[in-house]
Amino acid sequence: MAKKEATTKAAEVKETAAKKSTTTKKAAAPKAAALIINAENIGFKAGDVYQTLAAAEKALSVKEIAKKAKISEEETLMGLGWLFKEGKLSGTEDNKVVLA
Fold this sequence. Notes:
Blueprint: H1 2-24, H2 39-56, H3 62-69, H4 73-85, E1 89-91, E2 97-99
């Protein structure tokens, strides 16, 4: 009889511990999408940046471009680098970018 009580107690302890661990766990932080760095992907991001600047018809900051293009700031910077290298952009004194 003592063995049955011990087994029951052990099961209760495990159940209680399981409940506590599930209620005290914090939600996992959402994972950011993997940033794929290759010429094709950066070229697409450059296109997103170019289209955003063309639609805005004014100088925009990196943060503004990223928000309007719905891409990350890192992707925006890669696209900007591509477009600067091609001579399609120029910078302004207030750290904004405009089509050349």
